[in-house]
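User: Before I run my own analysis I want an independent prediction to cross-check against. Here's the chain; please return only the structure tokens and, at the end, one sentence I can use as a sanity check.
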Amino acid sequence: MRSSVLEEITAGVEQPQIVRLGPNLFGVVFALMKMIPARYILRQAVARGDIGPDTLIVETTSGTFGLALAMQAALLRRRLILVSDPVIDDELHRRLTDLGATVEIVRHMAASGGYQGSRLERLAEIRAEHDDSFCPEQYANPDNPRSYRLVAELLTEALPQVDMLIGPVGSGGSMCGTASFLRSVNPDLRLVGVDTHRSVLFGQPDGARSLRGLGNSLIPSNLDHTAFDQVHWCSAGQAYRATRKLHREHAVFQGPTSGAAFLVAERTAMTNPDAVTVVMLPDQGYRYQSTVYDDRWLAEQGHSTDPTGDRPVETNHPRAEHAEWSWFNWGRRSLREVLEHHGTSSVAAR
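Assistant: Structure tokens:
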């Protein structure tokens, strides 16, 4: 009975819709994209025996992966501890605790990796305190990218071909996993990653980021840099304006991470009219009704809702930051190759 309930409730959340956003542009619209890896990782762990009746599930997250895990843990009747930091929003925090999860907030930044580094330290402490625990490890678990075979199969069934795949990059799972399966059908598929300034994922130095849900202070093992043809970095203002445009013109109600991806995808599709372009749109916009979808808040933050002037600037160096939106021809190289070729190196480069 419990298994059938798990299937019925979460399968619908997991399944995205594919919608047309332009003559050659299609969006993969998710209610909660992180449900795909959360559901797959936990089901695989149960099947392998890594999760038993009394196993504690523990993970570090400040976003929607935690929400997906909390939903799954509630249905599986397993205890869940999530390690987060002060930037977690109140509405998400309340929903996590209502689902029965324990949310621990770290209050200091580690010398390396900022809050994410200190969250990982606390995660290790919790696991050391419990003999029977399981960590999904979304950043390093290969079941994360494997789970996105589902998305690739939906795309191959719905579209005659996919020439370009565009989407936000976080753990590396969704973009690298989906592209890997799609390239088994079309090796020439071009992969375009969307990041934000002061994120280390593609070589920029770590720093404060106002755009929630995009960017990282650590480089995940699941991020395969050699899969990417291009990388775009956009500002919070750019993402917010594109989020509102996506809603206003297409009635697609998503969060700012989706807005950032749509910003890049719309222009890419226009400049490549013969290519079938697909953009990943991760999560619905309900958490952002009092911020991104509030004109007063946008004005207070200095973000105009007028998209005029949104233009990408090509840069010849991944660490060169432009005020709004820049892009770099990554060329399916490793991070180390890119940085060394452009005269820089990093101990974190791979």
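Sanity check: Residues 36 and 346 are 32 Å apart (CA to CA).
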